[in-house]
C-alpha cells in the first residue's frame, strides 16, 4: 500500500459532515462576541439541516449521475460484465459476505449472465480498511458466486 492510501483513510473522517458541524460548534463555543456566536450557531443549524437532509443531497448528486442503460436496450452479447466494487464487505463475525445499498451492481450482473447477455463476470474490489480482515471484496464476491 502506498502512503496516499493510508492518508486518505485517515483524512476521510475530516471531510465528513459531523466533523464540520463539530468544528463550527467549537468555534461558536470559543467565540467571545455574542453576535458572532449567534451567527455561527445559526449557520451551523442551517448547515446541519441542509446537509443531513437526504432528499436535498440526493437531488444534488443526481445532477452528476449518468443515466443507466435500460437492460431491455442491450441487444448484443458481451464477453465480460465488469462489476465495480463498493457493494459488499467481508463480515468477520459471520464469516461471509455482507451486501450494502450498492449491491444491485452485482445482482444486475448475475441477471445479465443468466440471460446470456454477458458470458463472464469480472469483479473489482479490494479491502478498503486500515485493519485487514484477510478477504478482499472481490474474493468474498467470487466465493458468493
Tell me what the structure shows.
There is one protein chain. The chain is of the alpha+beta class. It has 6 helices and 4 strands, in the order H-H-H-H-E-E-E-H-E-H. The strands form 2 sheets. The protein has a two-stranded parallel sheet with strand order 1-4. A two-stranded antiparallel ribbon has the order 2-3. Helix 2 runs antiparallel to helix 3. It is elongated. It starts with a helix and ends with a helix. The model has no long low-confidence stretch (mean pLDDT 84).
In short:
This protein has about 140 residues and is an alpha+beta fold. It has helices at about 5-10, 15-30, 35-50, 55-65, 105-115, 135-145; strands spanning about 80-85, 90, 95-100, 120-125. The protein is built from six helices and four strands.
Task: Write the SSE topology.
Layout: H1 3-11, H2 17-30, H3 34-51, H4 54-64, E1 78-83, E2 88-91, E3 96-99, H5 104-115, E4 118-123, H6 137-144
Parallel strand pairs: 1-4
Antiparallel strand pairs: 2-3
Oligomer: single chain
Indicate the overall shape.
Answer: elongated
Major sheet: 2 strands, parallel
Quantity of strands, as a count: 4
Which spans of ≥5 residues are poorly predicted at pLDDT below 50? none
Secondary-structure class: alpha+beta
Strand order of the largest sheet: 1-4
Sketch the topology as an H/E string, one letter per element: HHHHEEEHEH
> Could you tell me the strand content as a percent range?
5-15%
Mean pLDDT: 84
Helicity, as a percent range: 40-55%
Q: How far apart are the termini?
A: 28 Å
How many H/I helical runs?
6
Radius of gyration from the alpha-carbon trace, in angstroms: 22 Å
Amino acid at each position: 500500500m502506498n502512503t496516499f492510501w493510508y492518508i486518505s483513510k485517515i483524512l476521510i473522517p475530516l471531510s465528513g459532515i459531523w466533523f464540520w458541524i463539530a468544528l463550527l460548534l467549537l468555534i461558536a463555543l470559543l467565540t467571545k462576541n455574542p453576535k458572532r456566536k449567534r451567527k455561527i450557531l445559526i449557520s451551523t443549524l442551517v448547515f446541519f439541516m441542509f446537509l443531513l437532509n437526504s432528499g436535498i443531497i440526493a437531488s444534488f448528486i443526481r445532477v452528476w449521475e449518468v443515466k443507466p442503460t435500460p437492460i431491455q436496450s442491450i441487444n448484443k452479447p458481451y464477453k465480460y460484465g465488469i462489476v465495480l466494487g463498493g457493494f459488499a464487505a467481508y463480515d468477520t463475525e459471520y464469516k461471509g459476505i455482507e451486501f450494502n445499498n450498492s449491491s444491485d451492481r452485482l445482482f444486475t450482473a448475475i441477471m445479465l449472465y443468466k440471460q446470456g447477455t454477458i458470458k463472464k463476470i469480472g469483479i473489482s474490489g479490494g479491502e478498503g480498511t486500515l485493519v485487514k480482515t484477510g478477504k478482499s471484496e472481490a474474493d468474498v464476491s467470487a466465493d458468493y458466486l
